[in-house]
Amino acid sequence: MTAALMADSALAEVSVDAELSNENTLEEIVVTAYKREQSLTDVPGSIVAVDAQRLEENGIISITELYRIIPSLNLHEGSSATGNHMRIRGVGNTGTAGLETGVSVVLDGVVTGSMAPRSDRMFDVERVEVLRGPQGTMFGKNASAGIIHVLTKNPTPELEGYVLLEYGEGDSGDQDLQEFTAKFGFGGPINDTTGFRIAGFTTQQDGGYLYDIEADEHTNSSDALGLRGKLQYESGSFLGRLSVSVTEEDRRCCLRAFRTVEAPYGGLTAAFLLPELEAQGIIPSADNRVISADANPIAQADSNTTLIGGDLEWAFDNGMTMKSITGYINWDIEHRDDADVISLDFANINMYKEDQRIFSQELQLLSPESEKYDYVVGLYYWDMKTDGERRLCCWSALFGSERDNSRLYTVKSTNVAAYGHLNYNFSGKWRGFAGVRVLSDEIDHSAITVDNTGAGGDPVLTPGLSADNDNDDINWAGTLGIQFYPRGDEGGMMSALVSRGYKGPGINIADGNPGFSTDPTQHPFALLEPEQVLNYELGYKQAFTGRTNALLSFSLFYTTFKDYQTNTWNAATSTSLVQNAAELRTRGFELEVSAAPWDDGEIWVGISYTDAYYESYPDAQCTAVQNFNWTGIGPCLQDLSGKAVAETPEWEFHMAARQEFTLSDKYHGYVSGDFNWLDEITWGTDLDPNTRADSYWLINLRAGFYISDQWELFVYGRNVTDETYTTRIIDAALFSPGAYSQYMAPGRMLGAGFRWGFN
Fold first, then answer.
1. C-alpha gyration radius of the chain
2. How far is residue 333's CA from residue 331's CA, in Å, rounded to a whole number?
3. What gap in Å lies between CA 561 and CA 542, rounded to an integer?
4. Side-chain half-sphere of 143: how many Cα atoms within 13 Å?
5. CATH code at position 713
6. Where are the beta strands (DSSP E) in 153-299?
């Protein structure tokens, strides 16, 4: 057994990635993609499993950071703290109160819904599984692009635990960021039938990586903490597990720096914005980290999440197993920022409030695993209610007094489904599988709109506006495929599958200026058509033993989306919205290779190519410049048919390597590195060329050693080359055209820490 395995065991870490022993063998990777444990080499379709060790060594503490290590997965900060953009294979959207994301986030079997990207902290994680492509059969209507399944650690039969402390500092440019992180996990048996586990974390960031000239301080930082408790009871054929998780995050975030300011069309851009920036000494550029926001209020986002999960499992004498998964989630957030992005008191509050509650219940019946066949059937119920407020206020410089433009709304959504999946072994070389899910959706919305934008006028109250969509038609998702083992169980596995995905109807909850728009497509009560997906996929997986010691996984895909639900932005009215694009197509491949070709070392390489484009999208929103030049009747629209989808790099390359070495019987060391390259990307969903960002490299390094199989000391560097890159570029709507701002990523971070563990 290698020093790494001995040390990781002592530190209560369980690896699911390929590990190398002195006998040069690979351990089996086990995943739960089809509701039961299976070897990764037997699962058709594209799936990546990342263990706790790799997450920790790469500084991955949130779901939105996974894109740094997983090809064709793109998760980036949204235009506010209330949502992040999630895409797999170029497909996905920002979840809102009235619209689920296309990438479903699942925590210990519980679908978290549209709030997931906004409450994304991970701690005490066993592993993360990313399934690419439609997963509607097993995971429902909001998995049309794929799923991210986070599995946390369960109680163990032996008493064990760990404590981790680390501290890092940003040391580049205008960055002044200090970060302290503490994590712990502790658990074991209470008696012969009952076990427990308690885990928690806190992350405190001081300073920030943007400098606010107006406030004379650094900003864009956050403080977060979380606590999870698990109880597990096991007696005979019964297993029960109760989990309660609470997280809280306070972020001074989401301020953006000006990237470019041009004034070819005059107007506010030339007469108002440029003199203001010049007076402050701010030079817009691709690497600008200097801003001038209102000193009061500063951008702030406070969120709280409570998740309660209950798992019950009965094993019957005939080999059948019944499972019950119950979930309850309560998530709330209050966010505000500087809407005008300058120090003048023009439009200084852009505020969001939401309180979301989700209840879900799933029942599963699993057949015995036999040589001939196995199956899973299930029932699912989902109920979500969101109460929210959208508010743009305080236009005092323009109107001479404070003005409000806001909306109070309630969105309710329910989903009922039944599903089944069958695996059948035709022979030693041929296996087939098929699955189907039938479902029904209902969504309704009610709101009160306050429009108080007129100078000197009284508020205009519009009560009782509502919309509903009772989707009475029975809809479905499904999978059909075949697997071929050329050399039986000892060889690789080839697979071919076709899958149908489905995402239910939505209601457009337009952000920003709910009373400004005359465009019916962005009416706050506009209904969106359901999204239908058809995916074709070929795959090959092979485990190589002996001197090679490698696991290869390859997927080739072609996917079509009808009535694709996409986020977009109306630059003319400063309003974000969602609408249906008629048809989208995405095609490409993913290749992953993990290997342990020499003693105590391992390497992982991932490459993806994604060609995502609109087959038909004739009524897309215009860019800022197009809106400025628009002289027609009605809203300005452009035809994006045949154009590439935004927010998706065409090529991605990821490589990780780890080498362990023995210093003595007491001391064991390691070095590891992660190298990631992302192709150039266009951020604006209207495909504005001014929102295009260059490709970039990210390099993370870490080195450490173990003492007596209990202590680990380490140093690390994240973004060690101090790469400057953006997580989003948008037109600065209030000053369009010609003004663009950007959300910046942190620069280089250097730090050190230690871990103590026992078992």
1. 26
2. 7
3. 31
4. 27
5. 2.40.170.20
6. 160-170, 176-189, 194-208, 210-212, 217-219, 221-235, 238-252, 257-261, 290-291
Q: What is the pLDDT of residue 393?
A: 59
| Residue in 574, 728, 691, 734 with CA at minimum distance from that of residue 260 | 691
Mean pLDDT in order along the chain per 10 residues (759 residues): 32 34 56 82 89 86 85 73 75 77 89 65 91 90 89 95 95 82 96 97 89 82 92 96 92 80 61 77 88 65 88 95 96 76 65 87 94 94 89 56 68 92 91 95 78 50 54 83 86 93 80 42 65 95 82 95 86 72 94 90 94 94 83 85 93 94 90 94 90 93 91 95 89 71 89 94
Q: CA–CA distance from 413 to each of 113, 389, 470, 549 (Å)?
A: 11, 18, 10, 49
Please list the alpha-helical segments (H only) found in 517-632. 624-629
Token pair, residue 498, equals: 């076709």
Residue 317 CA: distances (Å) to CA of 163, 236, 320, 322, 367 = 41, 11, 7, 12, 12
What pLDDT does 754 receive?
Answer: 95
Helix-then-strand count for the chain, H and E: 7, 44
Give the Cα separation of 368 and 362 in Å (integer). Answer: 19
Q: Which domain holds residue 349?
A: 3-758
CA distance 694 to 703: 30
Q: How far is the C-alpha of 723 from the C-alpha of 439, rounded, in Å? A: 46
pLDDT value of position 349: 62
Q: Is 547 helix (H, G, I), strand (E, B) or coil?
A: coil
d(Cα 646, Cα 585) in Å, to the nearest integer?
Answer: 13
Q: Which of 27, 28, 51, 24 is nearest to 41 (CA)?
A: 28
Assess whether the previous peptide bond of 297 is cis (omega < 30° from 0): yes
Q: What is the pLDDT of residue 510?
A: 58
Residue 422 CA to residue 435 CA, distance in Å, equals 6
Query: Helix (H, G, I), strand (E, B), or coil: what is residue 537?
Result: strand
Q: Is residue 210 a contact partner of residue 218, using CB atoms and an 8 Å limit?
A: yes
Dist. CA 46–CA 481, nearest whole Å = 13
Give me the pLDDT at residue 564, please: 92
Q: Please report the pLDDT score of residue 517 as a whole number.
A: 41
Contacts of 516 (CB under 8 A, 6+ apart): 405, 453, 573, 574, 575
How many structural domains compose the chain? 1
Exposure b/e, 643-674, CB count within 10 A at least 16 = b: eebbbbbbebbbbbebbbeeeeeeebbbebbb
Distance, in Å, from the CA atom of 364 to the CA atom of 341, rounded to the nearest integer, reads: 51
3-class secondary structure per residue, 281-313: CCCCCCCCCEECCCCCCCCEEEEEEEEEEEEEE
- 3-state SS, residue 634: coil
- Report how far residue 446's alpha carbon sits from residue 463's, in angstroms, rounded to the nearest whole number: 9
Note the pLDDT of residue 383.
94
Q: What are phi and psi of 680, to 5 degrees?
A: -60, 155
- Dist CA 155 CA 188 (whole Å): 6
